[in-house]
Amino acid sequence: MVRRFPILRNPMHDFGKLTSRVETVELPGGRETQIYVFYGAGGTEWHDLYKSLPPFDFYVALDDGDRVVSMESNPEHSQIASHRIIGISREEAGDFTRGPGGSVYGMKWNGSRIVDPTDHMTIEQKRAAMPDLTPREFRDALIDNDIMPDQVTAAINGIADAKARAKALNAWEYPTMFSRTDHLLEQIGSSFDLSPEAIDAMWTAAAQQ
């Protein structure tokens, strides 16, 4: 009987934030040049720091919100000052990809793996995180959904309360940007039978154009 042993993976390691220093080095031939040298929190140079441990599948740079800004298999390419660097396994990276068009950028480290932060948001948080639209983008989105701008103006003019009507007109006619969480969108949705989910879809389509 052949005994099978589990494959032991190198556990995630937090290298801490790197700081950079400009240092002068001598090149072959005696010429001097200045380079950036990166150090860990304890003052250990980055090369010595990562070589002190077995290699990781990926070296990930995180911002202060634990969002991924870089994920490289080569630790030489993971020297980013003022960012926290962690070493992780492929399992901890999940299905996210790196490089041009990679899906990992902006994702979040939750302490045990990389996750899409939107998967853990409430619907209200997702709407608050949607990008703003310019007045033209928002009006074009309404037109694409067969809602003409003059129809919106007419619907607002039909609001009985004078102050509420005036504020809605201000929000419709004089914004610099439209936000998905603007109260005006609730009024437009109610007037034109647009559900919150339909507005979400309209908003997302407009933001991607």
From TrEMBL:
It comes from the Bacteria. This is Uncharacterized protein. It comes from Rhizobium tropici.
